[in-house]
Amino acid sequence: MLLLWGPPLAGFFFGGCFGGEGLEVGVGELGVGELGSWGLGSWELGRLRRGVGAGGPFLYLGDMDSTKRFSDRVEDYVKYRPGYPDAVVSTLGVEPWMVVADIGSGTGISTEPFLRRGNTVYAVEPNADMRAKAEELLGGYAGFVSVGGKAEATGLADGSVDLIVAGQAFHWFDPVGTRAEWVRIARKGLGVGSGVGAGTRGGAGVRAGEGTRVGGGGGARAALIWNERLMVMPFEAEYEELILTYAGDYKTINHKNITGEQVGRFFAPEDYVLYQFENGQDLDFEGLKGRLLSSSYIPKEGARYEEMMRALVELFGRYAQGGMVRVRYDTKMYVGKIG
Q: What kind of architecture, by CATH, is found in domain 65-230+257-282+328-337?
């Protein structure tokens, strides 16, 4: 597990895409003409529009209703999306009495590990199809509470939650509205865990020892978690190239666009800690196909779909060993005080 320490930052959100709101940039700091240096193509630049946010003027990239994107991907999502390493939950130092809010909970991949520990978990999900699948799969847990809500308007009571998590979802959120809502629902005067272990606040590359947990101080914590697919090995790089070739808005909505600076702005004025864990999936061809189709930006029919499937068959054939390929991930978890 790799742990990095990040200082608090102040200012505008910029770069990447946060849900339907998109790219937010201080107009006074960066003009539209300069955005090309960020690697934005003409299609993305054409979607920019102006607005006013809590910090002043900004630019937005796109306004797609992200809450509906996965309605036709539910089954593939359940079967083929990766889970999270057990160390994610143990590192958070979660106790069974803690109340957890899983925001953007989807089909419950990030919800179930806390339910298994005996927690009450409010699974807050705006997409009715995803929420219904979570209810089907997790309804047998006594602590499972399904909530139709979103990051900026959860519907939860003031000061009702000890830990807020978002698994594979933060890039869809409006960060300003989300922070305000999470501060509202966070229980005050509570610390999660028993303190951060010695040496865990070092610079890049510092390794956290076994049993290291998050904690210290009062107030609830938030954990932003996602699996970031690696692109180091030849198969990984070529799989990424296939996605770039056939995905409509992959570059715009990819959670890899989220930087430590943006996370720092979300948690400011508090600090945050970044934990990193190894993760992976061993997939046969049907598994690789399902993993690909679980992404909302991938075509599911038509000529482009057929062409993409031929390319996927060819890619799998070249790299499969024993009928399987391995998709590796770096699981990132940003943790900070939110209450």
A: 3-Layer(aba) Sandwich (3.40)
Q: Which residue has the higher pLDDT, 41 or 250?
A: 250
Has residue 301 got a pLDDT over 50?
yes
* Distances 94 to 87, 145, 187, 260 between C-alpha atoms, Å: 11, 18, 15, 24
Spans of all domains in the chain = 32-61, 65-230+257-282+328-337
- % of the chain at pLDDT higher than 70: 67
pLDDT at 210 over 60: no
- 33 Cβ contact partners less than 8 Å away, ≥ 6 residues apart: none
User: Residue 31's pLDDT is what?
Assistant: 33
132-160 pLDDT, tens digit each: 999 999 999 999 999 999 999 999 999 99
Q: Is the pTM of this model over 0.85?
A: no
| Sign, CA torsion 304/306/310/312 | positive
